[in-house]
Structure formats: C-alpha cells, structure tokens
Amino acid sequence: MESNFDVASIRKQFPILEQKVYGQPLVYLDNAATTQKPRCVVKRIEEAYFSHNANVHRAVHLLSQQATEAHEGARVVVQGFINAAESDEIVFTRGTTESINLVAFSFGEAFCREGDEILISSMEHHSNIVPWQLLCERKKMVLKVIPINDDGCLLLDEYAKLLGPKVKLLAITQISNVLGVENALGPIIELAHKQGIPVLVDGAQAVAHRPVDVQALDADFYTFSSHKIFGPTGVGVLYAKRFFLEKMPPYQGGGEMIDQVHFEKTTYNQIPFKFEAGTPDFIGTAALAEALRFIQKIGMDNIHAYERQLTDYALKELGKVEGFQLLGNIPDRHAIIPFQLKGIHAYDVGMMLDKLGIAVRTGHHCAQPLLERLGTGPCVRASFAFYNTTEEVYRLAAALRRIYKMFN
Ligand code: PLP
Questions:
Q1: Residue 98 belongs to a domain with what CATH number?
Q2: Ligand 1, residues 172, 174, 177: which to mutate, most atoms within 8 A of Cβ?
Q3: I need a surface site. Which of 103, 109, 125, 217 has the fewest CB within 10 A?
Q4: What is the pLDDT of residues 5-21, one digit of tens each?
Q5: Are residues 282 and 303 part of one domain?
Q6: Are residues 168 and 264 in the same domain?
Q7: How many CB atoms are located within 10 Å of the residue 341 CB?
C-alpha cells in the first residue's frame, strides 16, 4: 500500500501502542469501541489538574477563570470542528448515549404527543434505539424502523414510504458501528425536511474518520463521544440547532442550568447552559479540545484517505484467508470490518486473537436487532484508526489463518 501518511511518527504519540501483550507487540483493532489517547491529551489532563483546577463559571479567582476559559474555549473548538453556526449550539454531555437520551427526553416533552411516531433505522446502536423506546412508552407513541436489504444497506424507497405527518423525528446513524456502511445522509435529511421532520444524526462512528460539517448536512441534532475521537472518557457532544434548544425544556435540574431559583418558581439559564446541570467535566472538555486540535493538525482529509486505503487493503488481505466470511455487502466501508471464521465461534476467534496480541471486539456490538436481521449471530469486528498499519493487518490475516488451521 502506497501512502505519504507518516504513520510511524503518529504512533510515537500513542505510548500504549508500544507495549506487548502475552509477549506479542499489541495490535489494537478495537477503535470503534474506544480509541487510544495521544500524549498531548493526557498531558493536558495532568496540566489542568496540576495548574488550574477550579470549578468553572462560579468564582472570581484566577484559577476558576482559567478553567472557565479552557472549558468555554473547548466549546469553540468543537464548534469549529463540526462547523456549527454558533458555540451556543454545542452542549457538553457524558457521551453519545447521554446526548441521545437528552434529545429523546427534552424534544419528546416539547414536540411529541400520544400517537406520534419516531423513525430510526435497522442498523442503530442500542443507544439510538432504547431512548426512543422509553420515549414511546412514556408518551404512548410508535417507533418505526427503516428496513435494510440483505447486503446491509438501507432501503430508501421504504424509508420514503415511512415518512408522514405523524413522524416527529428521524434518528439515524451516519456510519454503522457493525458494518462500517455510511448512510446517504444528504438525500435522507433532505427528504425528511421536505415534510418538516427534524433529523438526529448519531455521529459516534463518523467524527473520527471523515470531515463533518453539520451545516452542510443540515442535521438538526448531531451527537458524538470524546473517547471515540482520541479524547478522554466521560465527555460527549450534542450539537443542536438553536431553534430546538430554545424550545426544549431542561433535561436535568441543578446548578449551572438556572437563572433564578425561588421556591415558588425557577427560571432557566440561556442555552447551552440550560442543558448542562451540575459541574461539567471541564478537564475532560479541555482535553477533548486538545484531541481535536491534534487531529486537525494531521488533517481530517488525510486521515480519511489513509484509513480508506488501509480498509481496502485489509479487505483484500483478509479476503484471501480460508474460512473468512465478511458480513454485509457494502460498496464502501469506513474503517470497520465485521466477519466470522467459518465454523468457529466469534468468541473463540476473539480469544485466540487476544493471545496472539490482537485486540478485536466480538459479540453483537450493541446492535442486536441488526445482527438478528442479518441472521448471523455474534461476529468479530476489526476496527481501525489512523495509527494502524498494513503490518498490523498482515498480522491479523496471519493469525486468522493459524486459528482456522487449528480448528480444522
Ligand atoms: N452510537 C454508535 C454508532 C456507537 O458506535 C456507540 C458506541 O459504540 C454509541 C452510539 C454509544 O456511545 P457511548 O457509549 O460513548 O455513549
């Protein structure tokens, strides 16, 4: 594989990748679950705790001002990263899951009534299914699902038929965490908007792999997790258009989200603070900003191009392994390869790969309905980041050959 991408120098920024597991150099291919952190992110966390740790927004002293500047500065970095129109449209949460739950609750309160419908797709992660089920139970609404074909692609004609006046929101993933397929969000969102239906995009598997422009997408809501984009755990992002944030009631009550509190009546803070009750993870948000700056320096287009080449190379190499069975028939996969080894349980494959130093994910990948639809049962998922290499793909292919031989 030809590439100008300097993966060797990038890897030096990720000390965890240098270690051995069971005496073998670690091959980390579980990036869709969580990504490793570059030195600058961990350094940022240490620096924040050692030199300007103080609660944000509340005090006049210097440390608090520095912490507040870092936290609010992070909001602006996130705004720029996904090209939101204003930083007030960026709400910090604990992760994609909390971002979606926030919308399911608050949007549900403001815009949904008994008999209304929420539309999702067959390839959603559980965190883009269950919050909508809870809303539907609470409000006596109906959850509708866009079907997929046997290849694992959305049936867009069926999607068009499901739209109608009862649908209050479409919640859909940009890239499937199992199949790696990217949905055609441009036409999907346009069609929903023609009928006045807002769209929530689950960007958890997209932001680390391709440039995202929420205004170009015209997404009404966009969610992602810091830990999947080289930032710390426990921080997430909800982008929402001002129109919706203004209309939606608070999700949780407490400090930060209030304007005036009286026993008779409480008034709420302006957006985004209305949705950020309690002390935010201000050290985490500053570290997320550091991660975003780090990848901006490498260039999202460069990352996208490198990962595309690596994924294509992996598909070719793994395709030559006897017994290798790829899930789905997708024209263009984003850094995710789901597979089975013929006749061998996915857990056995995962455990043996682990002993050979290769970390992959096995199971239903929090997308049980998708695997049920595909009729495959548990599978193995190798997922890449820009620090993975062709040598690592080669080691994965060699390990799979060895495992297949052992079982046959
Ligand atoms: N959505 C998708 C597509 C995911 O892949 C994941 C995590 O794997 C999530 C949502 C949930 O993310 P988190 O657990 O960080 O909230």
A1: 3.40.640.10
A2: 177
A3: 109
A4: 899 999 999 999 999 99
A5: no
A6: yes
A7: 23
